[in-house]
Amino acid sequence: MRQSQLFTKTRREAPSDETAKNAELLIRGGFIHKEMAGVYSYLPLGLRVMEKIENIIREEMNIIGGIEMKTSIFQNKEIWEKTNRWDDSIVDNWFKTKLKNGAEVGLSFTNEEAYSNILKQYINSYKDLPVYPYDFKEIFRNEARSKSGIMRGREFYWKALYSFSKDQEEHDIFYEKAKIAYQNIFERVGVGSSTYVTFSSGGTFSKFSHEFQTLTDAGEDTIYVDENKKIAINKEVFSDEIIESLGLNKKELVEKRAVEVGNIFTLGTKFSEPFNLKYKNEKGEEKMVFMGSYGIGLGRLMGTIVELLADDRGIVWPEAVAPFKYHLVEIPSVKPEVKETAEKIYKKLGENDVLYDDRDLRAGEKFADADLLGMPTQIIVSEKNIALGKLEIKNRLTGEVKMISEDEL
Ligand code: ATP
Ligand code: MG
Questions:
Q1: How far is the CA of 261 from the centre of ligand 1 (A)?
Q2: Would the pTM count as exceeding 0.70?
Q3: Domains of the chain: residue spans and CATH
Q4: Any idea where the Aminoacyl-transfer RNA synthetases class-II family profile domain is (predicted)?
């Protein structure tokens, strides 16, 4: 993409009403636009990051048998009354609206009800199980707090997968696969070494659920971490009993701030019962479907990557999620070779991998922009470098500079 055609521009100053580093940097870089507290639009550069994260998650979900679909934002009141979750006194973060005829509808704040209701139409026999549908979707929650930028939105984009299994045994096998898929995802997007499988409260059907918590002071959670074993316990459930049952040593646990980037949860028959979601086994007996849920917040993950890797000059994107791999910076010159060389490199590396700064601006401004926007590799084409027969390649993360020839590139 040519930067001259990108309508967004960088800003030197962060908006005064934004306190979270992720939102400050993403707004300054023109990745997102703040609509109101907790509500952001994704601009072209921000969308590219989201799509890269989305594709990584999609690949990992498909590997473990996920089947993608897209459920509606609009929620039918009657369906939510089955689980007693329609009432505002029970769920306090609903966004609701009304049809012209006065009927109430909700905007999705989670997906268990919608999925149970849809799958009920299709699950009859043991032959229909297991099944692992998922979707990427906008979620709406009237959160009381929204000071964490895109890490806690009132509207946010997530992936939710629900597992429908014949029994706990079949469920447990998938649950372990999902855990590994999640670890792969966090590894691939560049936060793996700071992300801990964290034991958290489990509900009725299992002792624990598992959260994936990434260490950052921008997080709102407190966890106790065993750095060697790479596991943690959420403060919510922290007790001597749990430390012992996990074979951990209290002395080796360190208190840390973290953000929950994803979670996996054994639901059991909590939702299949109210929806009467049953199947017939081989003997013709009716059994309840056994469910699990698996969520990841994509915006929260994107914000976490920014929080974790940014430095005093701006954002640093890992290559797997960067909007572009390369930032090709042409330093304007009266010598036509400069533009010619830059154009040639742009064509060679391809518009999908290169953000080409072809704008008529001073070098200092261009370098500051490239550092703020955070593409992993900067390629600098200038009169001086061309005279040497070289290109300057700068690694955004390490600051390391290499002079290489066009052929080497
Ligand atoms: P939290 O305790 O942080 O509010 P949650 O327990 O409400 O999270 P879930 O309902 O399980 O989260 O949602 C699944 C995932 O969606 C979370 O792991 C998180 O990554 C993401 N998520 C939840 N709430 C938000 C939000 N307000 N903004 C952005 N992402 C969110
Ligand atoms: Mg919440």
A1: 7
A2: yes
A3: 3-73+108-309 (3.30.930.10), 326-404 (3.40.50.800)
A4: 38-318
